[in-house]
Write a structure and sequence with these properties.
The complex is a heterodimer of chains A (182) and B (247). By secondary structure, chain A is mostly helical. Helix content of chain A is 62%, strand content 0%. Chain B is an alpha+beta fold and 247 residues long. Chain B is built from eight helices and seven strands. The chains are: A mainly alpha (182), B alpha+beta (247).
Chain lengths: 182, 247
């Protein structure tokens, strides 16, 4: 678990130390969000670092109950703005498509998916439409509630739930296809 | 889906009343489509568990170093708001001031890397070659590490080399039994391909790890560029750098 105990704090005032205490425990979550918002591993680490530097600079103005949600929101905003600047370096996702249910009656082999390769899951996730992937990353990987995600993204809670549901349906379908490849 | 999607979503979110849930359970017994959707949702969540991995080893140290440098920079300009640490236009810090004249207290105002700044990018003074293999300058200095034994007197005094056409001086330090090598040069050093730039996209400062070694470097447009190699985890580099007065 990341913590502030290994960090040189002699240059820091009380606010700096308070920042470390509040922010460093969320490093894993911020990394997961960054990792699945960008394609490149090193770019994800750059994004995490930039997120923490921005948050550190703005900590004095941070209000609100959840430091984790605040950090994740900064991360998403940075990813968005960096994505605009470096369009070719961010995740290339499929264009959002209208929801098409998978073939009715097709059974998803849960046990097989539970053992599927992590890289395959990551690959399938990267191929989801942007909004669905974002809802899944924030809920299933970062552990936010639908209400928190709705607030972060500025959209209704039901929309978040619907995007996550549709994204998971599509993800399961992609993984089954992957699993059935010879 | 022929059945209302909202009902499946509410069921999966645990938002149905006990009575509604009982009725939906009954529905699932006879509706293949809804049952397949519930199973797919659960299977996807299970698969996604695999992506809840921790941050890579070394990232905490990297972030810690960046924050430590940011705090150092901020403390030097108390008038300026903290956000100025990453704002272009701040004064360019000196890097490794007096390293040659003061062998026991090399000064690296590493905030260079924080003041992302600096017109440097626009001027294009530093072209970091990250495409090649590990630069020979770095490999040579790493090879000079002698873990567990005292560095040579020549290295302790500061030894001059020309590696891959670049003149540099390497000086050894030992702090509490840990060896550190500091290389300085009038020219920017090539940046290893596996490095992370500090911070943002500036190519002035970088850090990298190689096995149990951590490396941290700052390139300057004018004056001394430097990098330090130490046999310690990246997370401990900020403390070492502070003790050596590098930051």
């Amino acid at each position: 678990m990341p913590g502030a105990n290994t960090i040189e704090t002699s240059h820091m005032d009380d606010q700096g130390r308070a920042f470390l205490e509040a922010a460093m425990p969320h490093l894993d979550v911020v990394y997961r969000v960054a990792r699945h918002t960008t394609r490149d591993h090193h770019h994800a680490e750059d994004l995490v670092q930039e997120t923490y530097l921005r948050a550190f600079a703005a900590f004095g103005t941070h209000r609100g109950p959840s430091t984790k949600a605040w950090l994740v929101t900064i991360c998403l905003n940075l990813a968005r703005s960096q994505g605009r600047r470096r369009a070719r370096r961010v995740v290339e996702t499929a264009m959002p498509e209208p929801y098409e249910p998978e073939a009715p009656g097709v059974s998803v082999p849960e046990e097989a998916l539970a053992n599927i390769d992590r890289a395959a899951v990551s690959h399938a996730l990267a191929h989801l439409p942007d909004e669905q992937r974002q809802a899944i990353v924030l809920m299933d990987l970062a552990g936010h509630s639908a209400s928190e995600v709705a607030e972060m993204l500025g959209c209704p809670r039901n929309t978040v739930l619907s995007r996550a549901f549709r994204g998971r349906q599509r993800l399961a379908s992609l993984l089954v296809e992957e699993d059935m490849k010879p | 889906m022929t059945c209302p999607e909202e009902r499946v979503i509410s069921f999966l979110a645990g938002e149905l009343s006990p009575e509604e849930e009982r009725r939906f359970d009954q529905h699932l017994l006879g509706c293949e489509e809804c049952w397949a959707a519930v199973k797919a949702d659960r299977a996807a969540r299970l698969a996604l568990e695999q992506l809840r991995q921790p941050a890579p080893a070394g990232l905490e140290g990297r972030v810690a170093l960046a924050l430590s440098l940011a705090a150092q920079e901020a403390s030097k300009s108390p008038q300026a708001p903290k956000s100025s640490v990453a704002r272009p236009g701040a004064g360019a810090p000196s890097v490794l001031r007096g390293a040659t004249a003061r062998p026991h207290r090399p000064r690296l105002v590493a905030a260079a890397c924080l003041v992302v700044v600096m017109a440097a990018g626009a001027a294009g003074w530093l072209i970091a070659d990250r495409s090649a293999a590990e630069p020979p300058q770095l490999a040579a200095v790493v090879a000079m590490m002698t873990p567990g034994s005292a560095p040579t007197n020549a290295l302790r005094a500061g030894e001059h080399f020309v590696i891959a056409g670049q003149a540099l001086m390497v000086r050894a330090y030992r702090l509490e039994g840990t060896e550190e090598l500091v290389a300085t040069s009038a020219r920017p050093f090539p940046v290893p391909p596996s490095s992370h730039m500090l911070p943002g996209s500036s190519s002035q400062a970088w850090m990298a790890t190689k096995g149990r070694l951590s490396m941290y470097g700052v390139n300057r447009r004018t004056g001394q560029s430097m990098f330090v190699v130490a046999a310690m985890p990246m997370a401990e580099m900020p403390q070492m750098a502070a003790r050596l007065d590098l930051i």
